[in-house]
């Protein structure tokens, strides 16, 4: 597998379900050599999920003072971490650093976060976050195409 798309989250925590929702949408597409899975906020699970991948794309919900529900943000290691945080205290920058120390990182990592409005208990995302799903899928497809075309994005 050269590419892995990982949706982080819990579909029973309202907008925190964005990662699994985007992963499910990508899984339905006819993409070759693309693994799609969902994961919790366990750093070891992420290291296992992206280990050996050329490109890993992660989708997660984010919350913070400047969050605008439904806004999609892109982050890669080496950039300043976003001002919003994972909705479940997962520090992807720290997980990537751990992976580097252990020799277990993908060649490229791209993280998309979607600003959440509600991460309370219960199923169903808010309308703004539901509306972000197609945009997130489109951006993931762009990343995959760039990777396949020239190994960069």
TrEMBL record:
Domain of life: Bacteria
Alphabetic keyword roster: Aspartyl protease, Hydrolase, Protease
InterPro entries to which the protein is assigned, alphabetical: Pept_HybD-like_dom_sf, Peptidase_A31
GO molecular function: aspartic-type endopeptidase activity; enzyme activator activity
SUPFAM superfamilies attached to this UniProt entry: HybD-like
Gene3D superfamilies named in the record: HybD-like
GO biological process: one example: protein processing
Pfam families: HycI (PF01750)
Transmembrane region(s): none
Family: Belongs to the peptidase A31 family.
Name of the protein in question: Hydrogenase 3 maturation protease
Native source organism of the sequence: Mycolicibacterium chubuense (Mycobacterium chubuense)
Taxonomy of the source species: Bacteria, Bacillati, Actinomycetota, Actinomycetes, Mycobacteriales
């Amino acid at each position: 597998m050269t590419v892995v798309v990982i949706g982080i989250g819990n579909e029973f925590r309202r907008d925190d379900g964005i990662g699994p929702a985007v992963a499910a949408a990508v899984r339905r597409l006819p993409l070759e050599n693309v693994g799609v899975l969902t994961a919790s906020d366990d750093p070891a699970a992420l290291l296992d999920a992206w280990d050996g991948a050329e490109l890993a794309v992660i989708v997660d919900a984010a919350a913070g003072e400047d969050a605008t529900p439904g806004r999609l943000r892109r982050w890669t290691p080496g950039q300043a971490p976003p001002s919003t945080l994972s909705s479940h205290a997962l520090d992807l920058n720290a997980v990537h650093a751990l992976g580097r120390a252990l020799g277990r990182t993908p060649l490229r990592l791209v993280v998309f976060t979607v600003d959440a409005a509600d991460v309370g208990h219960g199923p169903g995302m808010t309308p703004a976050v539901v509306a972000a799903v197609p945009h997130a899928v489109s951006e993931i497809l762009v990343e995959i195409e760039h990777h396949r075309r020239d190994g960069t994005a």
